[in-house]
Amino acid sequence: NIDDFEGSAQFKFSILEDFTTGKRYFYNSTKCDVHTHKESMIQWCVPKNATFRETVTIAETKVNVWREEYHDIRIDSLHTDDAACIPVNIIAIDDRRHNVDFNEFFDVTAGIKNPDVFKVPSYCSGDSTTSSIFTPAQVKLGKTLISKIVN
C-alpha cells in the first residue's frame, strides 16, 4: 500500500504484481489500472554491488548496513543479519538533485501471514489503455520510477 501526498491532498493506492501472468495492478478502493509487464521478480535483499559498512543494533535487532551507488545516488540499506534478510530501513540520497528518499519497514516478518492480500480486486480486469486512478503527472512519474527499478 502506498500513501502519496500532493500538497495537502493524500492519495492512497496499492500495487500488486503477478509475475506468473505478467500483470501489474494499480488500484484504490473503487478503480483499477491493469498493465502488462515482462519483468522478473526482484529478490529483495542486499544487491550484489553493495559494500558492507557495519553491523548495528536497533532496539534488540541486529542489522547490517550496506551501501551501494546507482548513477549519482547513494543508497544505504539496513537488513536483518539473518537468512531472512528483512529490510528495516532504506535511504537514497541524490546530492546532485538535492533529493532524499527515506523508507522504513515496521512489523515485518518472514513468510505470508494472510494470502488474501494477493487477491486482485474484482473490479480489476483486462488491460487499461488510459489511467483511471492517476493524474497524467502521476502516470509519467510512475513509469519513470518503475523503469528505474526494473532496469
Detailed description of the structure:
This protein has 151 residues and is mainly beta. The protein contains one helix and nine strands; from the N terminus they run E-E-E-E-E-E-E-E-E-H. The protein has one helix spanning 136-150; strands at residues 2-6, 9-18, 23-27, 32-36, 51-58, 61-70, 73-80, 87-94, 99-104. The protein has a five-stranded antiparallel beta sheet, with no helix packed on it. A four-stranded antiparallel beta sheet has the order 1-2-3-4, with no helix packed on it. The protein is globular. The model has no long low-confidence stretch (mean pLDDT 78).
Give the total of beta strands: 9
Radius of gyration: 17 Å
Estimate the mean pLDDT confidence: 78
Order of helices and strands: EEEEEEEEEH
Which strands sit side by side, in order, in the main sheet?
Answer: 5-6-7-8-9
Which bin fits the share of residues in helices? under 10%
Largest sheet: 5 strands, antiparallel
From the N-terminal CA to the C-terminal CA, the straight-line distance is 22 Å
Low-pLDDT stretches are none
Helices and strands in order, then pairings?
Layout: E1 2-6, E2 9-18, E3 23-27, E4 32-36, E5 51-58, E6 61-70, E7 73-80, E8 87-94, E9 99-104, H1 136-150
Antiparallel strand pairs: 1-2, 2-3, 3-4, 5-6, 6-7, 7-8, 8-9
Question: What descriptive keywords fit this protein?
Answer:
single chain; mainly beta; five-stranded antiparallel β-sheet; 10% helix; 1 helix; 151 residues; 9 strands
Task: Provide a compact summary of the structure.
The chain has 151 residues and is mainly beta. It is 10% helix and 43% strand. Strand 3 (23-27) and strand 4 (32-36) form a beta hairpin.
